[in-house]
Write a structure and sequence with these properties.
The complex is a heterodimer of chains A (256) and B (273). Chain A is of the alpha/beta class and 256 residues long. Chain A is 41% helix and 24% strand. Chain A contains 10 helices and 10 strands. In chain A, a hairpin with a 2-residue loop joins strand 9 (207-212) and strand 10 (215-220). In chain A, helix 3 (95-106) crosses helix 4 (111-124), helix 3 (95-106) packs parallel to helix 5 and helix 4 packs across helix 5 (140-152). Chain B is mostly helical and 273 residues long. Chain B has one domain (51-270). Helices cover 85% and strands 0% of the residues of chain B. Chain B has 9 helices and no strands. The chains are: A alpha/beta (256), B mainly alpha (273). Chains A and B meet through helix 2 and helix 3 of A and helix 5 of B.
Chain lengths: 256, 273
């Protein structure tokens, strides 16, 4: 469903991805793990076509995202849903208008039908009673759930989640994780989640990938991932201060 | 090195400034073109480019809410202009020229210019701050990721609102200034209101009015484009929003004055008075 092939990406002097390749199969729940600033969110933005790689190709189904013109790209994006780390709800619109936005802007559905879909999606994320509230009146967990409802409103085939449980208490984080799992199972949605939260990653992932120094260094099932012999993965999972991750960082700092 | 060859360094800096300026002008031009393109594409697909409610919200903010400010400032300027020019003209016994002078100066030049400067400060700053905040909080990117064109959705209603409202506000500015000068003419130079109106009608040409209106449309487009462009290119969080807002006002005011001069040069060349 999604493929990134030999992608290079850099922001000014900083190289974020170097020869990055990844394949995602339909109905899979892939979790990409990695340190903060390792380029996990960049991968999601490349899939959406918000960022263009310096080299390499990004495919979504039969479309090469990197080559699409704006109009076509906008249409392809309607098959994807994105949940941002900080929710990115439109602050001047209430919950109903936030969730209804893609339907109002991109479909010809009448208002009554839009309201019905909005109710259905809000019900799905357990937020039906917040329709008239503004985002500033909601907690972080509630905003995340609204963002999830908005991402689902066009029935996407692919859902991209950027740190879905970051900053949430363990109970709300579990609620969000369960939602993602049930959506994937009921609606056959493929998902790509980037996170460095272990609990979330192992709860929702059907396949895990570790991003380190611009490349995927390990890609396997959750159980095998836990047993990985790769020193970077092992250190990342154990949270140890001894190992190649900090050595790499220290080398980089010393070189500067 | 810098001390050894100061003319070379200065030359390089001037070249760099020139290059940055041209890059900004080019980016702004393409920003306007892309906004038109996205909006037209949507119309071609038989759909409204943006919601009427969004458009009217901006016309209310940019237009209706600006009426008191534009009216009051123009009123005071009209008073001052009539008073100062009146005393000078009185020395030659030509104070009956005041109505025509104020009317022509405002309809052709000062009305659009003063309105442009005030709207650049009041509405341009608001547009930049609003879009800039949306940009740093990833709202703009979220809109884009849904497959909605942010230029069509966010910029087009603002641009159209200011484009259409500028001539109306310029007209209010003209009326306020002419009305103010009529009060001065009555109070200090014994020019009665009906005679004042006759003098205005005699001196004012349709051409003066059309020139002012055309300028207003142009200023409305430029101010909104600069404000939205600066807002959507904000970088660096809250501090970036502040910097971009200041930059937006400075750029818009300078551009309005610059284009006014350019317009007058072109107009005077083709239609010398």
């Amino acid at each position: 469903m999604v493929e990134l092939r030999d992608v290079d990406m850099q922001f000014e002097e900083k190289k974020v991805l170097a020869g990055f390749s990844l394949k995602v199969q339909p109905q899979e729940r892939l979790v990409i793990m990695g340190q903060s600033g390792s380029g996990k969110s960049t991968v999601l933005r490349l899939i959406l076509g918000i960022l263009r790689p310096a080299a390499g190709s990004v495919f979504f189904k039969r479309f090469e995202i990197t080559r699409l013109r704006r109009r076509k790209l906008q249409r392809v994006r309607q098959h994807m849903g994105m949940v941002y780390q900080y929710s990115a709800l439109l602050s001047s619109r209430n919950v109903r208008d936030n969730v209804a936005l893609p339907l109002e802007e991109l479909t010809d559905k009448p208002r009554s039908e839009i309201d019905k879909i909005v109710d259905e999606k809000l019900d799905l994320v357990g937020m039906k009673d917040t329709k008239d509230l503004l985002p500033e009146e909601l907690s972080g967990g509630m905003r995340k759930r609204i963002a999830l409802a908005r991402a689902l409103v066009l029935e996407p085939e692919l859902i991209l989640l950027d740190e879905p449980s970051a900053g949430l208490d363990p109970v709300i984080a579990s609620v969000i994780d369960e939602l993602i799992i049930s959506l994937s199972e009921k609606s056959k949605v493929t998902s790509i989640t980037v996170t460095h939260e272990m609990d979330t990653a192992f709860r929702i992932g059907t396949r895990m990938a570790m991003l380190y120094q611009g490349k995927i260094i390990e890609e396997t099932e959750p159980e095998k991932f836990k047993q990985s012999k790769n020193p970077v993965v092992a250190q990342f999972l154990s949270g140890s201060t001894e190992g190649p991750i900090l050595e790499g960082s220290l080398d980089a700092i010393t070189k500067k | 090195m810098a001390n050894a060859h100061p003319p070379v360094v200065i030359g390089q800096e001037i070249t760099q400034i020139g290059r940055n300026f041209l890059r900004e002008v080019g980016s702004l031009f393409w920003f306007i073109v892309n906004t038109f393109e996205e909006t037209l594409e949507r119309i071609q697909r038989g759909r409204v480019p943006f919601r009427a409610a969004s458009f009217f919200r901006h016309t209310e903010r940019a237009g209706v809410d600006s009426v008191p400010l534009v009216g009051l400032v123009s009123f005071f300027l009209g008073l001052t202009m009539a008073l100062l020019t009146g005393y000078q003209l009185q020395r030659f016994g030509t104070e009956r020229l005041i109505p025509g002078l104020v009317a022509i100066a405002f309809t052709r030049e000062l009305g659009p210019l003063i309105t442009g400067i005030m709207l650049a400060a009041r509405i341009g700053a608001a547009f930049t701050a609003e879009l800039g905040t949306m940009q740093v909080s990833e709202e703009v990117e979220a809109i884009e990721s849904m497959g909605i064109g942010p230029l069509r959705f966010l910029v087009a209603p603002r641009m159209l609102a200011l484009f259409l409202l500028m001539p109306c506000l310029s007209t209010i500015s003209n009326i306020a200034a002419i009305f103010a000068s009529s009060l001065i003419c009555k109070a200090y130079f014994s020019i009665a209101f009906p005679y004042f109106l006759d003098l205005v009608k005699d001196s004012l040409l349709i051409r003066d009015i059309v020139t002012g209106i055309l300028k207003s449309f142009l200023f409305g487009l430029l101010i909104s484009a600069i404000a939205c462009y600066r807002g959507l290119t904000v970088k660096g969080g809250a501090a970036g929003v502040g910097t971009s807002t200041t930059s937006s006002v400075v750029t818009a005011v300078t551009t309005v004055i610059g284009f006014d001069t350019l317009y007058n040069i072109v107009y005077s060349t083709f239609y010398p008075t």
